[in-house]
Amino acid sequence: MRKIAYILFFYCLLGSVQAQQKYWVVFKDKPVENNTYELSAKNQSNRKNLKLPLAQVSDLPVHAGYIDSLQIAGVEVLCTSKWLNATSAFLDTQLLERIKQFSFIQEIIPIDRHLQISSYPSENLTPEYYSTVMGQLNASVFTEQALTGKGITIGVIDVGFYGVTDNKSLQHLLSENRIADVQDYVNPANTEPFTRLETNSDFHGTEVLQMIAGFEPTKKLQYGMATGAKFCLARTDHGTRETRQEEDNWIMAMERMDSLGIRLINTSLGYAVGFTNPKENYKPQDMDGKTSIISRATRIASEEKGMLVIVSAGNEGDDPKWRIVSTPADAEGVISVGATKAKSRDKIGYSSIGPEFLPYLKPNVACFSPSGTSFSAPVITGFAACLMQADSTLTNKQLKLLIEKSAHLYPYGNNFVGYGVPDAGKALQLLKDSTLSLNNIRVVKQKGNVFRVKAEDKSAERAVLFRKKNESFVLEQKLVGLLKGELEVKRLPQEKQTTVDLGNEVIEVIWE
């Protein structure tokens, strides 16, 4: 998510809309009028392999009678979601009060939120060099094992994809016809998504795609891990002029990708603050994985459809009024990805942190990105695609756990960097034996208020300290120097545990 996308929405489309607010109208049930489940062959195959029910209520269409009743009442229906059993619409005060009386309506939710833009490779794709983040994640191991995401289709939900045809690192996707589907939900009439520039943000999706699958042959430089994957692309955000269609677009894109049988999704988008009407801003406590409508949809994708959704955590880490992840990065089933520095693997300032009130850890993992978590999430998406190629029977939950367990701090994660930076070599070892404990972690129970660190590697020159108030929540992150491999750590007043990341080893200090 880049700072350029933190902009006010243009929502005064027409004079009649100015007095209206946008809402999701959620229905109580789905009266049985038609039991037809429209599932593609690929979708059915996925569900059988993942042992998910073929017949799901969320696949049934919204009851047509409810839509008719709204339209008769004067509601102009915008988008309808079978997953959420809801429709979106602009409502003025009078219309809102009228439909509140309808017995079939469960709830009416304001949604005028502000979007923040959060096979073996062929010979010409054999890398000699890797981008910094690829080196950090030990990606060469995937290359050695001929893992490039071949056979996997990845859905990318983002802003525009302008410039794909001119991007040298994406030419293999075009020449091999591996962009299978492109949908523009912002401007459906756009037949030239790669060459027609509508906003200055339309490069964003292209850059995200590069971080998933990019390979530049002239430099033999690899940017992303899934160079062999196929892609379905969806533009759901206008970029500069927001019409508040974006949440609808995102959910429609998710439902379409599920219908195509796509199991892996990257979305570098997020919702938090910046409403046109400040009274309608999300509050930090709303980032609970269940309040926002987009997190509800993500939960359905994860729990019912078996989809693995990988989301950028957000860029609010330096904002004292927010700091925490945006939605849907708050949803439990997604992998939300933060950003670290390249070598020390501590959190980059802008990277959003996990809320203390969540009963689960966010972000889940992190990796290097100098330009926002929008570009750390797609790297992990490519990582996941390679693992899916290695074992197509893995469920989304198994994949999520595998990626977390391969990260360098596991099992001592924190709300700054999650479980840390994943490692391709460790992930493949865990794929063979999930009981392995591969991280070099020492647990020390320390009495008193001083702990003297003695690194196994006496040449170690620095360490990252995550000083925590409990198992997961960081009081202070600090990069410190060592002298001959030693360091004295003095306990802070509220400090209960301290993670000492020395690079080649991790020490977890439990203060007694």
From TrEMBL:
Signal peptide: none annotated. The active site is at D158 (charge relay system), H204 (charge relay system), S374 (charge relay system). InterPro entries: Pept_S8_subtilisin_bacteroid-2, Peptidase_S8/S53_dom, Peptidase_S8/S53_dom_sf, Peptidase_S8_Ser-AS, Peptidase_S8_subtilisin-like, Peptidase_S8_subtilisin-rel. Keywords: Hydrolase, Protease, Serine protease. Residues 149-420 form the Peptidase S8/S53 domain. The keyword Hydrolase applies. Pfam families: Peptidase_S8. Belongs to the peptidase S8 family. This is S8 family serine peptidase.
